[in-house]
Each structure stands twice: as structure tokens, then as C-alpha cells.
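Now for one record:
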Amino acid sequence: MADLITVDDPDDPRLSDYTGLTDVELRRKREPAEGLFIAEGEKVIRRARVAGYEMRSMLLSSKWVDVMRDVIEDVPAPVYAVSPELAERVTGYHVHRGALASMQRKPLPDAETILADARRVAIMESVNDHTNTGAIFRSAAALGMDAVLLSPDCADPLYRRSVKVSMGAVFSVPYARLESWPRGLEAVREAGFKILALTPDEKATTIDDAAPHRLERVALMLGAEGEGLSTQALMAADEWVRIPMAHGVDSLNVGAAAAVAFYAVTSGRPGL
């Protein structure tokens, strides 16, 4: 059973995992280096535990202690009970969900391991917006994608905002970070995947005509919001595909486009 510890000093070193959560650059550097990530909200914390992540500690406002009582009784990690005001001073924002947990990261698998048992893979290039990252992972989980691969400069899927937006779906979909770009795509092709680049370019085949759901193995590449896929990524693809647009709309937000494309990739797949 965890120790329930009341803390009333925002500078208490035991709360160091939770300091400055709104400082994106600091947390980007600190969390991977220290092997931790922050799970926010009851559902996300529970999903992280179900996914096998080890809890380092938990930070709760008083009204959440009873809600999380079963977790408190089941984990050996310390649980810090604080006032909402102190939680805000420590983290830098109003923790309206009232529950935070510092979790231990797992070692990331390599791309070859991820690809071995996959048939439907999403590849993200330079997606640095944490909201979009979380939304893409949520769609990937909900629509049956087997794995996600990230270019070296993609945002961290375990950053607090990504985890929160995905509602913990980042814990459900295996992912790996490619070591080089776009050279790392060769490992995808060697594993038997046809690489489709999602682009609004009029020269691209409509995703209906490309019929990706009929392919034995398919990898769908998505680019950053606004800029889309780089020229290098487009040149490395086997085929360009687009989502047909109407009413003069030229493109969708990358999160919305991902959901539409994932459905097209997985529709009719056995077992779904």
C-alpha cells in the first residue's frame, strides 16, 4: 500500500517530478532524460497502470483521494495529498482533474521489432504539435492501426498534453522512433510494406482508388500541420494518396485527416 503524505510546501523536493509542467522546453528535455512522464486524470492514470507502466508517485488534491483509493491501496509509490492552490503553484496551472501521476518510461522498441507483427502502420514526419500527436494516436488506437513510427524530430507521445488528448491511447499502440530520416523508411519497405504518402496534391490518387485496405501490408505517412510531408518524404513514398475534398475546402487538420485515412486503411480488415 502506498503512503499517503500531506504536503504543504510547494518547494518540497519530493514534488520535483511535477514542477513546471507548463514549461514545454524544460519538460521535453527533462522527462526523457529522467525516464519519466506525467499522466493526468483518473482515466489516464488507470490506463497507464493497465499498460504496465510503473508509478513513481501520485499527486492528488484532497477530493480525489477517495476516488483513487483503490490505486493508493494497490501501489507502493508515495502519494502526495495537496491543496488545489499548492498543486497550481507546483505545476504552473490549475489542475482541474485533480490527479497527476509520475510514471516510469519503458525502453522503446526498435522499428524492426514493431514492424514484425504489424500490417497497418502510421508514420509521422515532423509532427511537433502535442495536441495533434495525441489525436493521431487516439485515432490509430480506435481505428485498428497496429503501430506508429516517428521521424526523429516528432513530438514525444508521452508528453503530458499528448497523453491527455489521446485519453491514454498512446499506451495502447506500439510505437518506435526511426533513427534517421528518410533513410529509416527503407526498413519499412524491406519489411514488406507499401508506403503511402498522404497529401492534398491533385496528382495524388484518391484514397478510395488506392484501396489501401486490400494491401497485405501498408504504411501511411502523415506530415506536420500546414507544411505537410517534406519533399524527401514524398519522394521516398511508393504512392501519393489524397482524401477527396468538397465545397472548396483544400485540406483537413492532420488529426482529422489521420482519422479518415486510418479508416480507409483498416476498413474491411479481418478481425475489425
Observations:
- The first strand starts at residue 4 and ends at 6.
- The chain has a mean pLDDT of 94.
- The radius of gyration is 20 Å.
